[in-house]
């Protein structure tokens, strides 16, 4: 493997990386040395800035995050793990912006490669006929469980699996997916009647 791939998912206190914080991060790094998984919760410094809806989606609780490290305690390790990697994510620009902001605030260098791979783009290319491309929708399309979604490691593992399903999918597979999608939509419409 020439380039290290770093599958990434972050859970945050909101959508604005300048105001909100990462509260959970998962990385799956693939390199010539093998696969390395890293996941941690991160205690928010400014919970008063959090978007309540984001905390609800992430199932944040002060109790569960009580023992979590602060960003300064994990930033150097995260910077080291992502250095030289091509980031792969579902809406990867969101994850990259939050990662870059976290490292900047903690005085660490952001050294991931500029090139990124977005599984949303792959889904649009290979599943253009399917009306939804969220991670939850793709899980349902591929028959994956949604139990535990919106937790960084679960989302990262599932996104990685979807990446490999979509990567260089042969024509016959895309035809099968289109037929399957038509069947799913027909069943959904039939159930609504």
SSE layout:
Elements: E1 4-12, E2 22-31, E3 34-41, H1 52-58, H2 62-65, H3 71-82, E4 85-89, H4 92-105, E5 116-118, H5 119-126, H6 135-141, H7 152-166, H8 171-192
Parallel strand pairs: 1-4, 4-5
Antiparallel strand pairs: 1-2, 2-3
Quick one: biggest sheet?
Answer: 5 strands, mixed
**Rg over C-alpha atoms, rounded to the nearest angstrom:** 18 Å
Straight-line distance between termini: 51 Å
Structural class: alpha/beta
Biggest sheet, spatial arrangement of strands = 3-2-1-4-5
H and E string: EEEHHHEHEHHHH
Tally of DSSP helical segments: 8
Overall shape: it is globular
**Fraction of helical residues:** 40-55%
Low-confidence stretches: none
Round the mean pLDDT to the nearest integer and report it.
93
Percent strand:
15-25%
How many beta strands in the DSSP annotation? Answer: 5
Task: Write up what this structure looks like.
The structure is a single chain. By secondary structure, the chain is of the alpha/beta class. Helices cover 46% and strands 18% of the residues. Strands 3-2-1-4-5 form a five-stranded mixed sheet, sandwiched between helices. Strand 2 (22-31) and strand 3 (34-41) form a beta hairpin. Helix 5 (119-126) packs parallel to helix 7. The longest helix is centred in the C-terminal third of the chain and has 22 residues, at 171-192. It is globular. It starts with a strand and ends with a helix. The mean pLDDT is 93.
């Amino acid at each position: 493997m020439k380039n290290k791939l770093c599958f990434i998912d972050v859970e945050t206190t909101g959508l604005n990386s300048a105001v909100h914080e990462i509260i959970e991060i998962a990385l799956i790094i693939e390199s010539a040395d093998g696969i390395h998984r890293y996941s941690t919760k991160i205690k928010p410094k400014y919970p008063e800035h959090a978007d309540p809806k984001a905390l609800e989606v992430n199932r944040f609780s002060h109790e569960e995050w009580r023992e979590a490290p602060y960003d300064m305690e994990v930033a150097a390790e995260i910077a080291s793990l992502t250095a030289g990697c091509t980031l792969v994510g579902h809406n990867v620009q969101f994850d990259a912006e939050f990662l870059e902001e976290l490292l900047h605030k903690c005085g660490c260098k952001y050294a991931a490669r500029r090139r990124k791979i977005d599984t949303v783009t792959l889904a649009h290319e290979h599943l253009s006929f399917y009306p939804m491309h969220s991670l939850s929708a793709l899980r349902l399309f591929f028959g994956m469980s949604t139990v535990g979604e919106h937790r960084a490691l679960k989302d990262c593992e599932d996104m990685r699996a979807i990446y490999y399903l979509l990567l260089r999918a042969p024509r016959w597979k895309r035809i099968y997916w289109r037929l399957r999608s038509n069947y799913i939509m027909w069943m959904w419409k039939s159930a609504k009647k």
